[in-house]
Design a protein that fits this description.
The chain has eleven helices and no strands. With 249 residues, the chain is mostly helical. Helix 3 runs parallel beside helix 11, helix 4 crosses helix 9 and helix 7 crosses helix 11. The longest helix has 27 residues.
């Protein structure tokens, strides 16, 4: 049970910091209002780093169903634990969004734009073209998984000139930072079309929170789009992990 609880906590922390920066930048009368895309993508990268440091030693800090499914598909994670991990990640994302809602409730009340309120919780396309939106999420998540596996592979082969094995130092100290930089880079380069969900739980959990929480003038939760940030990252993760395995780096 500890690994599932860790996934709940880790994903919740990631969403508190990640959705929190979106609220800070978008909602009226927040001190970070109009901070811009650089602020959002930077904070999301930092959110990933902090969350991995918090629970990585316990659960591996997947924090993302696309990561969990892809690792299971390439034989690096047991399939029997996949359902529990995914449920834990969705619950954690939901709880993280609730915390952000509580913290920024006065600012939600001061914001009239329904789209901005929804954007605090979940992603939406800049231009609604489902095929291209889907492709954007597939490519972004494929790069995420390819990069994660590459970072992990480097950790396994790292030794000092004197022969001392540095893999533990790398995996526990440097690897979380590099994964955070990877997410930051994806956001800066590929996040424009859809807001780079690249994580089904990150989008679905908060979207559920938006649907059930009492937010004045919140509008609809855009369930017609919601399948894209769920299905596309799962496919993208499989592609990225599969390519890395086939190439054999």
């Amino acid at each position: 049970m500890n690994v599932y609880f860790a996934e709940v906590i880790g994903t919740m922390i990631m969403l508190i910091l990640g959705d929190g920066v979106v609220a800070n930048v978008l909602l009226n009368k927040s001190k970070g209002q109009h901070g811009g895309w650089m602020v959002i993508t930077t904070a999301w990268g930092l959110a990933v780093i902090i969350a991995i440091f918090c629970v990585g030693r316990i659960s591996g800090a997947h924090l993302n169903p696309a990561v969990t499914v892809a690792l299971a598909a390439v034989g690096s994670f047991p399939w029997r634990q996949v359902p529990g991990y995914i449920l834990a990640q969705i619950v954690g994302a939901f709880l993280g969004a609730v915390v952000v809602w509580v913290l920024y409730l006065p600012h939600f009340e001061e914001t009239e734009d329904k789209g901005l309120k929804l954007a605090v919780f979940c992603t939406a396309p800049a231009i609604r073209r489902p095929v291209f939106n889907f492709l954007s999420e597939v490519i972004g998540t494929a790069i995420l998984l390819f990069g994660i596996l590459a970072i992990a592979a480097n950790a396994q082969k790292l030794t000092a000139p004197n022969g001392i094995d540095l893999s533990v130092v790398f995996s526990q100290g440097i690897q979380p930072i590099l994964v955070g930089f990877l997410v930051w880079g994806i956001g800066l380069s590929l996040g424009g079309p859809t807001g780079y969900a690249i994580n089904p739980a990150r989008d679905l959990g908060p979207r559920l929170a938006h649907a059930v929480l009492p937010i004045a003038g919140k509008g609809k939760s855009d369930w017609g789009y919601s399948w894209i940030p769920v299905i596309a990252p799962l496919i993208g993760g499989l592609i990225g992990a599969g390519l890395f395995t086939i190439i054999g780096f």
